[in-house]
Amino acid sequence: MTHKIDGAMSPALRQIEAAGSASVQSRAGADRGQPVGPAAAADQMRLTGDAANLQALERELGAAPAGIDVAKVNAIRSALADGSYKVDPQAIADRMLSLENALSK
């Protein structure tokens, strides 16, 4: 069995679509083609103490360099760029072990 698809709706389908759009329009009170307005002002949001503290911390960190040695950062950045920065794996390992020891106490 084959069906020709030509874009024309059957009369039964047109009736269903017309009834559906009329009921949506009457329920919604407006045409569905119109943009949706803003939500009612009844919604509220309250932050927990932790969230408020995190927001305050974020504002503080964003306002100042927070003790970052900008000159040292720039020196390391240029050493990395020109290839003169040397990594000491033994120093890194020693510091990782001391951090692990400090955290396990």
Automatic annotation (TrEMBL):
Keyword list, A-Z: Bacterial flagellum biogenesis, Cell projection, Cilium, Flagellum, Repressor, Transcription, Transcription regulation
Matches recorded under SUPFAM superfamilies: Anti-sigma factor FlgM
Domain Anti-sigma-28 factor FlgM C-terminal, residue spans: 43-97
Region of interest (Disordered), ranges: 1-42
Family: Belongs to the FlgM family.
InterPro entries, A to Z: Anti-sigma-28_factor_FlgM_sf, FlgM, FlgM_C
Gene from which the chain derives: flgM
Functional description taken from the UniProt entry: Responsible for the coupling of flagellin expression to flagellar assembly by preventing expression of the flagellin genes when a component of the middle class of proteins is defective. It negatively regulates flagellar genes by inhibiting the activity of FliA by directly binding to FliA.
Identification of the protein by name: Negative regulator of flagellin synthesis
Record's keyword annotation contains Transferase: no
